[in-house]
């Protein structure tokens, strides 16, 4: 079975994302190790949707013996997969060693370390480090941090056992935290933040090593990788107002990171509104607002390797 390996890597992969899987900086390099607290905070809060997805995948691929979390980040979902597949060995793969250390510590705390291992590697290199083909590969918002996504999918497919499943979480809907008009600033703030995020994301993709422009028709790309696209399903996370303390803290973290990363792309009034929203001393901030909520949707595409 796979053991922990160290590789020199340049891509940063993680599945725990804000909007596109990360909250952006004012440049296109993403340091996921620096994002560790936010990654854990988000994945734990989104756990109900991930548990639902894992239960669905257990129906799609019952009896899986080797499960790979490709772009595992700090291992929150890796451990959820270990719960969903109690007879499986789970391998968490990421380029950030510090995140994998967190994943191993989490597996130890949750009592699944005896069937949990990590591999430090670039997803662009495929799954050649595996000693056995995988029954399930989970790739959650990690593929889009690889320059040539088509080639990476082919590498994932090659690492699957006959009848094995690739579950690709890409797309869905941006998160929403507040009503369109929440009483301060110009209505529609989140839509403008989304537009700035999309521009940042396009630059991030273009700056990746070996970047290839690819239409995001994920079922077609799964088919091109030699897999049979069998299903697409979207999982909803709906946390209505009033938010729990944990959910409210996550909204604050998310808006703070957006404000810090996208300020240059937003007009001064929107930046001022974001400043108010994250200021704990402002009664109009999300620290205190009764109308703050969390609503998002995550889409999973499934491809099966022909037997």
Overall mean pLDDT: 91
Please report the number of helical segments.
9
Proportion of residues in extended strands: 15-25%
The largest pleated sheet is described as: 8 strands, mixed
The chain-level structural class is alpha/beta
Question: How are the elements arranged and paired?
Answer:
Layout: H1 36-45, H2 47-60, E1 66-70, H3 76-84, E2 89-94, H4 97-109, E3 116-120, E4 134-140, H5 149-158, E5 160-169, E6 173-176, H6 189-207, H7 218-224, E7 228-239, H8 245-262, H9 268-277, E8 294-304
Parallel strand pairs: 1-2, 1-4, 2-3, 4-5
Antiparallel strand pairs: 5-8, 6-8, 7-8
Helix pairs in contact: 1-8, 2-3, 8-9
Describe the structure.
This protein is α/β, with parallel strands linked by helices and 307 residues long. Helix content is 36%, strand content 20%. The protein is built from nine helices and eight strands. Strands 1, 2, 3, 4, 5, 6, 7 and 8 form an eight-stranded mixed beta sheet that branches. β4, α5 and β5 form a beta-alpha-beta unit. α1 packs across α8 and α8 packs antiparallel against α9. The longest helix is centred in the middle third of the chain and has 19 residues. It is globular and about 55 Å long.
What brief labels describe this structure?
9 helices, alpha/beta, 307 residues
Brief account:
This protein has 307 residues and is an alpha/beta fold. It is built from nine helices and eight strands. Helix 4 (97-109) links the parallel strand 2 (89-94) and strand 3.
């Amino acid at each position: 079975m796979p053991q922990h390996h160290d590789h020199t890597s340049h891509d940063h992969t993680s599945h725990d994302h804000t909007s596109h899987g990360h909250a952006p900086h004012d440049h296109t390099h993403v340091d996921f190790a620096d994002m560790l607290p936010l990654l854990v905070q988000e994945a734990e809060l989104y756990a109900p949707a991930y548990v639902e997805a894992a239960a669905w995948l257990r129906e799609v691929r019952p009896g899986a013996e080797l499960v790979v979390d490709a772009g595992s980040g700090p291992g929150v979902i890796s451990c959820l997969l270990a719960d969903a597949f109690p007879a499986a060995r789970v391998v968490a793969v990421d380029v950030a060693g510090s995140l994998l250390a967190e994943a191993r510590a989490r597996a130890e705390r949750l009592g699944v370390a005896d069937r949990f291992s990590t591999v430090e590697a670039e997803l662009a290199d495929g799954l050649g480090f595996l000693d056995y083909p995988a029954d399930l590969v989970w790739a959650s918002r990690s593929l889009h941090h690889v320059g040539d996504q088509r080639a990476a999918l082919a590498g994932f497919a090659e690492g699957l056992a006959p009848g094995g499943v690739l579950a690709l979480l890409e797309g869905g809907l941006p998160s929403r935290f507040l009503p369109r008009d929440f009483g301060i600033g110009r209505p529609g703030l989140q839509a403008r933040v989304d537009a700035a995020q999309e521009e940042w994301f396009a630059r991030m993709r273009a700056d990746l090593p070996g970047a290839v422009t690819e239409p995001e028709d994920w079922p077609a790309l799964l088919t091109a990788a030699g897999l049979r696209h069998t299903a697409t399903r979207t999982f909803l996370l709906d946390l209505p107002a009033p938010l729990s303390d944990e959910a409210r803290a996550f909204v604050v973290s998310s808006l703070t990171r957006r404000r810090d990363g996208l300020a240059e792309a937003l007009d001064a009034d929107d930046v001022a509104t974001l400043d108010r929203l994250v200021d704990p001393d402002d009664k109009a901030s999300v620290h205190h607002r009764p109308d703050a909520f969390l609503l998002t949707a995550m889409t999973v595409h499934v491809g099966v390797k022909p037997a």
